[in-house]
UniProtKB/TrEMBL annotation:
This is Soluble lytic murein transglycosylase. Its EC number is 3.2.1.-. One of its GO terms (molecular function) is hydrolase activity, hydrolyzing O-glycosyl compounds. InterPro entries: Lysozyme-like_dom_sf (IPR023346), Lytic_TGlycosylase_superhlx_U (IPR008939), TPR-like_helical_dom_sf (IPR011990), TPR_rpt (IPR019734), Transglyc_AS (IPR000189), Transglycosylase_SLT_dom_1 (IPR008258). It comes from Silvibacterium bohemicum. One of its GO terms (biological process) is peptidoglycan metabolic process. Residues 666-773 form the Transglycosylase SLT domain. Residues 42-72 have a biased composition (Low complexity). One of its GO terms (cellular component) is membrane. Belongs to the transglycosylase Slt family.
Length: 818
């Protein structure tokens, strides 16, 4: 491609030497523990930024002090409360059980997932061939599986066997046995277990659940007074504020004949816990008693709104329509509810235009929403005349309505996809003008959370139309008006590019430096580093933070750029108390396939708020459940894409950027002339290293290959008869996937950005996007990808490849320094 940056292509070709991971740096091995103190070195993965609340940043001194703090923190272990002799003894017993049952885990995990006859037989054979705690863990796994299958006698038998041969997990065996008895209506047997549970297992995570179970048991026995005594004993505890406790309390009151109190309690549950299963049970009681009508229209609407916000459109539509049929409401209120129900139908892709048109055309918020929905239906039909007419009418009738903002943004997207860029600019720009602030930032007057995105799209399309002067103004506005927006990295980079085009190297360097400081591992930060290096060839001082450079007009000042701060990295520790009984028990639960209890068990440990997420992820990573471990860690440290390598413990990084199947990746990459880091990055983005991943489009395995692609690649590889299920074999998937990726790269001239976009969205779309106009370099093409998912996909793979490389470089340096 003319003008493409070929210097970057070297990253994707076969490298002469591969940096290998040192075994001591793998998660769960003998790496020294570190605790990382707070450091302004991160930014959330969602790309949002925040302004500094303090003084402006002075780069050189500030960075040095932060780095020193990180190094000092890395040498410290956290002081924690010593374990008692009883806890140490418990921990040792659990550890022995964990070691004894280590070979059980694959079978137990399979049983908890699929529960086939073969899976049951495998775990049963293990139980019969082992003794003590190993056998107990196997019987517990079987009992747990039978309980899930509602085979209660079999569950009780297996759980009794677990208790008879071991006691490391006896609280789980007792609790699950009680559940089996309750669900099979063997109430006296359940009562016997529950009555003595707290005294027998005072440290169990189930202690807080027992009162509600007991209360429900007494209710089943028809003894509300006994249930009330149990609940009364715990009203001052935290569990009294939970929905299950309050539902049990409401049922007790109902059975005791306190109907008014009971209905008030059901009402409270319904309104206070709208998304809970208890709310559904409370609604049933309110409807059957006729008390649902005692709820005010506002209360019912708020409940429906909560369902709508949570994406529960069926339930919300039912509630809205019920309100729409309520004769006690005036016509405008009923119409508002029916329009809200229509919005649910739109979300469920079943909205009928004629039904919507029959609703009154009012001049209130409901009328604005109705017009917006009609506009969306016109857009679906590609009816531009009706779409434009509706939007113009909304501007006149509802100039500050949020539904106008919705309509403007949707219209901009419509014309963007139609490649009518001037019209798209008008809609995006109009939205940003009418709603100049995001509702999430301090504001007065009309606002829209679409404003930052709409403003950026108008700015970018203006740039692509060749109006550099206006684009520069809009880029400056983006940085000044929406400093907390995810579009800021793009705005900083492209404003710097325009300064470069204007031969204002000092100004360009200032923006590039801001990018690399605040968004360390972002796609645009890497590009900024490359541009800084080129600028520094003629003026090395541009690499350093310099005094303020004079600027004209409304361009962001040096102080405004310095006010852009990376998000603080909270205190992170991989100094896990390996002897904590709850943590050891969590590992043992994994052996038995009781994964749903691992999180709660870890949270019960002292100090787990500081290390619990890492410990949980480490459990899954240690057993090869890479995808689960990675998802846990992404949630725990969402700012990792901006953090310096030394700001986060290396053990965290190795879960975030794992390298399973590394030998297969290296071998297949070498055969196809690919960089293994690039292959690993693509797998991370496609499947998170889950070899059994199947997409909603029937793409399989690590590299998410369609069966047709797999069949073609297998034939080229000379594999003979090919079956789709072979795609879940990691080695086969990598072998075929790397061949396919190589062919895709070759098809697009060796440009990885094109290849990644095609891998995600298809070859034809990439060809279509290439035809949108001239791109002077690859960066312009990537920013111009109209599908947000594909654009972020391409940027993420390029970013992650560099992080992989940086991590292995750091590992090699640490190994050499030992």
């Amino acid at each position: 491609m003319p003008g493409a940056d070929f210097s970057r292509l070297r990253r994707w070709t076969k490298t002469g030497s591969i940096l290998l991971l040192g075994s001591s740096l793998l998660m769960g091995q003998t790496q020294s523990s570190t605790t990382h103190k707070k450091k302004a070195a991160g930014h959330s993965a969602s790309s949002t930024t925040k302004k500094s609340s303090g003084t402006t940043h002075k780069a050189a001194a500030g960075h040095a002090s932060h780095a020193a703090a990180i190094r000092r923190a890395a040498t410290r272990k956290r002081a924690r409360r010593p374990l008692s002799a009883k806890q140490i003894a418990k921990s040792r017993k659990l550890q022995q059980a964990f070691v004894a049952s280590s070979q059980l885990r694959p079978m137990a995990q399979q049983l908890s997932t699929i529960r086939t006859a073969a899976a049951y037989e495998g775990v049963a054979a293990y139980a019969h061939s082992h003794t003590g705690e190993a056998a107990a863990a196997a019987y517990l796994a079987i009992g747990h599986a039978y309980l899930l299958d509602h085979k209660f006698p079999e569950a009780v038998s297996a759980l009794h066997s677990a208790n008879s041969v071991g006691d490391a997990l006896d609280d789980y065996a007792d609790y699950l046995t009680a559940q089996a008895y309750l669900q099979s209506n063997q109430l006296p047997a359940a009562e016997t277990i529950l009555d003595g549970f707290i005294a027998k297992h005072p440290d169990s995570i189930f202690v807080a659940s027992v009162p509600v179970l007991q209360a429900n048991l007494y209710l089943q026995e028809g003894d509300p007074q006994a249930a009330l005594r149990v609940l009364d004993a715990h009203r001052s505890e935290a569990i009294a504020g939970k929905a299950d406790f309050q539902l049990a309390d409401a049922k007790v009151k109902l059975m005791a004949g306190r109907s008014a109190d009971a209905l008030q309690a059901f009402r409270h549950i319904y309104l206070s816990f709208p998304l809970s299963s208890e709310a559904a049970a409370a609604r049933t009681q309110l409807v059957s008693s006729g008390a649902i009508t005692s709820l005010s229209a506002d209360e019912r609407r708020h409940h429906a709104d909560a369902l709508y916000a949570a994406g529960r459109y069926e339930g919300a539509a039912e509630e809205y329509r019920s309100l729409g049929d309520d004769s006690s409401l005036d016509s405008n209120a009923r119409n508002s509810m029916l329009v809200a129900a229509a919005a649910c139908d739109w979300k469920l892709k079943r909205l009928d235009r004629r039904e919507l048109e029959r609703l009154p055309d009012t001049s209130d918020d409901a009328g604005a929403r109705r017009q917006y929905l009609l506009m969306e239906l016109a857009r679906d039909k590609d009816d531009t005349e009706t779409q434009r007419s509706i939007v113009e009418g909304m501007k006149a009738r509802f100039p500050s309505s949020p539904w106008l903002a919705e309509a403007l943004y949707s219209s901009g997207n419509m014309y963007l996809l139609r490649k009518d860029f001037p019209t798209a600019i008008l809609y995006y720009g109009d939205l940003a003008h009418r709603f100049p602030k995001s509702c999430e930032s301090p504001h007065s007057g009309p606002c829209s959370n679409y404003s930052p995105s709409a403003h950026w799209r108008a700015a970018w399309l203006t740039y692509r139309q060749g109006d550099s002067a206006q684009a520069a103004t809009l880029f400056d506005e983006q940085i000044t008006l929406y400093a907390g927006g995810k579009e800021i990295p793009s705005a900083l980079y492209w404003r710097a590019r325009l300064y470069e085009d204007d031969h204002q190297a000092a100004q360009a360097a200032k923006y590039y430096r801001t990018l690399t400081r605040v968004y360390r591992h972002y796609y645009y930060a890497e590009l900024a580093q490359e541009h800084l290096a080129r600028l520094a060839q003629s003026d090395p001082s541009l690499l350093l933070q310099t005094a303020s450079v004079a600027q004209a007009g409304d361009a962001p000042s040096t102080a405004q750029l310095d006010a852009l701060q990376p998000e603080d990295v909270p205190e992170l520790s991989d100094d896990v108390p390996d002897q904590d009984p709850h943590l050891v028990k969590a590992k043992l639960l994994a052996n038995a396939g009781l994964n749903e209890y691992i999180t709660a068990e870890i949270r019960a440990a002292d100090g787990s708020d500081e290390w619990g997420a890492f410990a949980e992820a480490a459990i899954y990573a240690a057993y090869g459940e890479t995808a689960h471990a990675m998802r846990l860690m992404k949630r725990a440290v969402p700012f990792y894409t901006s953090a310096a390598i030394d700001a986060i413990p290396m053990a965290y990084w190795r879960i975030l950027f794992p390298q399973p199947y590394w030998q297969e990746i290296k071998d297949s990459a070498a055969r196809n002339g690919l960089d293994p880091y690039m292959v690993a990055s693509l797998i991370r983005q496609e499947s998170e290293f889950n070899p059994n991943a199947v997409s909603n489009k029937s793409a399989y395995g690590l590299m998410q290959l369609l069966p047709s692609v797999g069949k073609t690649m297998a034939k080229q590889e000379g594999m003979g008869r090919f079956e789709t299920n072979e795609l879940v074999d990691p080695a086969t998937n990598i072998r075929l996937g790397t061949r396919y990726l190589k062919q895709t790269l070759d098809k697009f001239g060796g440009h990885p950005e094109y290849a990644f976009a095609a891998y995600n969205a298809g070859d034809n779309r990439v060809l279509d996007w290439q035809a949108m106009g001239h791109f002077r370099d690859m960066d312009e093409f990537v920013e111009s990808i109209p599908f947000t998912e594909t654009r972020e996909y391409v940027q993420a793979i390029i970013r992650n490849e560099e992080i992989y490389r940086e991590l292995d470089k750091a590992a090699t340096q640490r190994a050499a320094a030992r």
